[in-house]
Specification:
Layout: E1 4-8, H1 14-29, H2 42-54, E2 58-65, E3 68-76, E4 88-96, H3 105-119, E5 124-130, H4 134-142, E6 146-157, E7 160-170, H5 173-191
Parallel strand pairs: 4-5
Antiparallel strand pairs: 1-2, 2-3, 3-4, 5-7, 6-7
Bound molecules: coenzyme A.
The site of coenzyme A has 22 residues, from strand 4, helix 3 and helix 4.
Length: about 190
């Protein structure tokens, strides 16, 4: 049986970087590569992963399938100057290589981001994605992320304008209850 492990990566070996580049390239070619529409040159991808490790506010979670990295997600903490948003983190770039999908890796990566956000005393996680990213939409909605808005001009892919959805999740149970109450109230208001 396949063995999935999720961890926060504070350093990456050359082999890990190569695995991340392979996973990213296959995800990009499959149409879901954290913003890239076609794989950049390998050296650019390698520099990208090494750069992620250097940014203090960017926490890199990686998923391993039988020891090899096959997916990642990043938790971005607010920068120190942003006191107004000091309790709000963002998840970005969640992807899993096509050959490692359907085994719970993305769910594990998202849960790891949430655990880390709680450890950093964050109260909310925000994220956004393209309306076409159906698997991710299912994933986040099944994990309690609430869609609060749509940007009709979120991305342009092959000349076509694509809408984007914005999600938020309250990490504390009490805050989640308050959000659910607010949503129910605004639904009622819309219906009346
Ligand atoms: C979205 C993505 C990360 C899911 O990765 P994954 O490891 O296969 O997902 P998991 O196995 O953890 O599945 C978790 C949940 O996601 C949803 N999901 C996963 N694949 C799905 C699919 N093909 N169709 C519908 N829902 C799907 C389900 O709700 C699933 O829960 P379940 O297994 O209990 O039904 C992966 O498909 C991917 O990399 N897509 C392209 C990039 C992308 O869209 N990234 C997110 C936005 S940045």
């Amino acid at each position: 049986m396949a063995n999935i492990e999720i961890e926060q990566a504070n350093e990456l070996s050359d082999g890990d970087i190569a695995d991340l580049c392979d996973a990213a390239e296959t995800a990009i070619l499959d149409g879901g590569g954290f913003g890239w529409l076609k794989p950049p040159p390998r050296a650019v991808l390698e520099r990208y992963w090494r750069g992620v490790l250097l940014v203090p506010e960017r926490l890199l979670m990686v998923g391993r399938l039988d020891g090899r990295i096959a997916g990642q997600a990043q938790l971005v903490l607010p920068p120190k100057n942003n006191e107004a948003q000091a309790k709000i983190a963002t998840i970005t770039g969640n992807f899993v290589a096509p050959w490692a999908r359907g085994m719970g890796m993305a769910r594990g990566l998202t849960a790891a981001c949430e655990r880390s956000a709680r450890r950093h005393r964050m109260r909310f996680i925000n994220l956004d994605l393209r309306e076409t990213q159906e698997a991710a939409i299912q994933l986040y909605e099944s994990m309690g992320y609430e869609r609060w808005g749509t940007n009709p001009h979120y991305a342009v892919v092959n000349g076509k304008t694509i809408a984007g959805y914005y999600y938020t999740k309250a990490l504390a149970r009490s805050a989640r209850k308050a959000t659910a109450k607010r949503s129910a109230a605004s639904r009622k208001e819309e219906e009346s």
